[in-house]
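Renewal narrative, Specific Aim 1. Our central claim is that a sequence can be written position by position from structural information alone. The example that follows is taken directly from our test logs and has not been curated for this report. It begins with the C-alpha cells describing the chain, in the order in which they were read.
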C-alpha cells in the first residue's frame, strides 16, 4: 500500500474514533485527542479532574469503539495488590485432587480503567508498575503476559482532596501523558443535560480492532524526524533540569528534578502522530510544542520554594519553550 494511502487511512481511523467518543462525551476535545495519541503511541494516560466529569464514560466508550476488552478497577484505601493482579487459589478437580490455580485479576484486559488511583496506598498503586512497563504480571514466580494492545487509563482526584495519596515518581513516569479535565462551560452543560436526561442513547459503532491498532502503531514508528528537530526536543528536556548549563532562571530557582528520558520518548512518539494527523510524514516544531505540556507536566518535581510560591510545572515548561 502506498505511503500516502497509509497516512490518509491513519487520519481517517483516528478521526472516526474521535467522532464515536463524542457521541457520549460533550466537549473535552484536547483530552479525547490526548487519550488517542497515547493509545496509538503504545502508552498509558493519567487523567486528573474532580469526580463527575465523564472520565469513566470516556474510557468505556473508547473500548467499545475499538472492540477491545475492558475492565474497571475502583481503587480504595483497603485494596491489596492481589486485588489487581490476581492470586493463586486452591481448587479441586473432578477426581478430587487439589492444586493451586491462578485466577487472573482485572488487570487482564486490553483497556484498564484504574479509577481514582490515588485513593489507594502506594503499595497497591505499585502493583501496576510491572504491567505498565513490561506488559506482564508476575504471581508466584510465574510471569503471565498481557494481551496486546494494552493500555492503562488512570484517573486521579486533585491531590488536595481528602483521602488521597501521591503517586510515586517512578509510577508517574510510566504514564505517557497527564491530561487535566476541566469543568464544562454553560453550553456544554446544557448539552450534557439534554443527552443524559432523555430517553435516547446513541449507539457506538465499532471502528477498529486490535490488529488495526497494531498496524497504526507500526506506522507511527516509521515517521521521519530530522536531526535538528531531535536536538530541539533534547534542548527542551535539558531546559527542565536545574543543573544543566544555561538552563532558564525559572528552572534553576523552582525545580528539584527535571523531566526524564521517558519524557523525551513521549514527546517524540506523540509528535509523530500529530504529523500524521496533519497529513505529513515528518515531524515539525509545531508538533513538538503541541504535546510538550501533557508529556512533561507530571515528570518535573518542584522544590520547596516552587511549591511555596504556587508555581505550576506547566509554567516551567512554557518558560523553557519560550527560551528555545
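The sequence written for that structure reads:
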Amino acid at each position: 500500500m502506498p505511503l500516502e494511502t497509509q497516512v490518509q487511512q491513519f487520519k481517517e481511523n483516528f478521526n472516526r474514533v474521535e467522532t464515536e467518543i463524542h457521541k457520549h462525551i460533550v466537549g473535552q476535545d484536547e483530552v479525547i485527542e490526548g487519550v488517542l495519541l497515547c493509545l496509538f503511541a503504545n502508552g498509558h494516560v493519567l487523567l486528573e479532574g474532580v469526580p463527575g466529569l465523564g472520565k469513566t464514560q470516556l474510557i468505556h466508550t473508547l473500548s467499545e469503539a475499538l472492540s477491545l476488552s475492558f475492565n474497571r478497577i475502583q481503587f480504595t484505601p483497603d485494596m491489596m495488590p492481589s486485588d489487581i493482579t490476581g492470586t493463586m487459589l486452591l481448587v479441586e478437580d473432578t477426581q478430587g485432587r487439589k492444586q493451586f490455580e491462578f485466577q487472573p485479576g482485572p488487570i487482564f484486559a486490553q483497556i484498564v480503567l484504574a479509577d481514582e488511583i490515588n485513593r489507594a496506598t502506594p503499595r497497591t498503586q505499585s502493583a501496576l508498575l510491572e504491567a505498565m512497563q513490561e506488559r506482564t504480571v508476575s504471581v508466584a514466580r510465574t510471569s503471565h503476559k498481557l494481551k496486546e494492545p494494552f493500555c492503562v487509563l488512570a484517573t486521579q482526584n486533585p491531590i488536595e482532596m481528602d483521602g488521597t495519596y501521591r503517586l510515586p515518581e517512578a509510577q508517574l513516569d510510566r504514564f505517557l501523558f497527564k491530561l487535566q479535565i476541566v469543568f464544562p462551560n454553560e453550553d456544554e452543560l446544557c448539552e450534557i443535560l439534554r443527552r443524559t436526561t432523555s430517553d435516547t442513547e446513541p449507539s457506538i459503532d465499532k471502528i477498529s480492532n486490535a490488529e488495526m491498532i497494531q498496524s497504526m502503531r507500526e506506522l507511527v514508528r516509521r515517521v521521519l524526524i530530522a536531526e535538528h528537530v531531535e536536538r530541539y526536543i533534547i534542548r527542551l528536556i535539558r531546559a527542565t533540569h536545574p543543573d544543566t548549563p544555561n538552563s532558564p532562571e525559572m528552572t534553576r530557582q523552582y525545580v528539584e528534578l527535571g523531566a526524564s528520558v521517558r519524557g523525551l520518548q513521549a514527546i517524540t512518539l506523540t509528535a509523530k502522530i500529530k504529523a500524521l494527523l496533519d497529513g505529513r510524514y515528518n515531524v515539525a516544531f509545531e508538533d513538538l510544542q503541541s504535546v510538550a505540556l501533557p508529556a512533561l507536566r507530571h515528570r518535573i518535581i518542584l522544590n520547596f520554594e516552587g511549591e511555596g510560591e504556587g508555581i505550576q510545572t506547566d509554567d516551567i515548561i512554557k518558560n523553557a519553550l519560550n527560551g528555545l
